[in-house]
């Protein structure tokens, strides 16, 4: 995990902690659901993130508009710079070799669109850092996570386990439309689901 990613996670946790504490206090004093207004969250976010370090973190998690993402295709001259960098490092034939058991949703084209969605991924650095080397490390880390989190993990297969990534699209045992399929916090039967209900 890069320092920026770790910092992003820590800052996100720090941003939500006050609301979790508030929800706990509300739960202790009331059994009625509490609605947090989006405008209040936006105002609090602005208060908590209005300093240079946080602006840097926000730059790493910026996203490209979906209308532009959908235009990304392998080899297209108009692809964003970060997508072109990934294409120069990882060819479609490499993708096919690395992920032979992948679900159909995990195509090379869709992967490039996912890269394009997040411009800071495999970004260009003009401060002396080696952009290609950084991108290779980002991809290696990402692919290790793919293998761990979505891998088939079937040792009997001829493909090594590290090549069994992207098998699963959904959490095992979860079906589309199921509430709380990944974790229990959104379950309407528990205090988090009652107190922090999405409205």
Automatic annotation (TrEMBL):
Signal peptide feature range: 1-23
Keyword Signal attributed: yes
InterPro entries per the UniProt record, alphabetical: Lysozyme-like_dom_sf
KW Disulfide bond (keyword) present: yes
Key words, A-Z: Disulfide bond, Signal
Protein name per the record: Chitinase
Organism of origin: Enterobacter cancerogenus
């Amino acid at each position: 995990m890069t320092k920026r990613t770790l910092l992003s996670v820590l800052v996100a946790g720090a941003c939500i902690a006050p609301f979790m504490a508030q929800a706990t206090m509300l739960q202790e004093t009331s059994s009625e659901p509490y609605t947090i207004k989006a405008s209040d969250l936006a105002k609090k976010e602005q208060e908590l993130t209005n300093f240079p370090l946080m602006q840097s973190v926000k730059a790493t998690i910026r996203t490209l508009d979906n209308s532009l993402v959908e235009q990304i295709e392998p080899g297209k001259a108009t692809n964003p710079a970060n997508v072109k960098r990934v294409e120069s490092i990882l060819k479609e034939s490499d993708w096919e070799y690395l992920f032979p058991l992948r679900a159909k949703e995990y195509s090379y084209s869709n992967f490039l669109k996912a890269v394009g969605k997040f411009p800071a991924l495999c970004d260009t650095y003009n401060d002396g850092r080696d952009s290609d080397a950084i991108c290779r490390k980002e991809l290696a880390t990402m692919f290790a996570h793919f293998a761990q989190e979505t891998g088939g993990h079937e040792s009997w297969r001829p493909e090594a386990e590290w090549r069994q990534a992207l098998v699963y699209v959904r959490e095992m045992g979860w079906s589309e439309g199921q509430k709380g399929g990944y974790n229990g916090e959104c379950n309407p039967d528990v205090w988090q689901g009652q107190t922090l209900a999405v409205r």
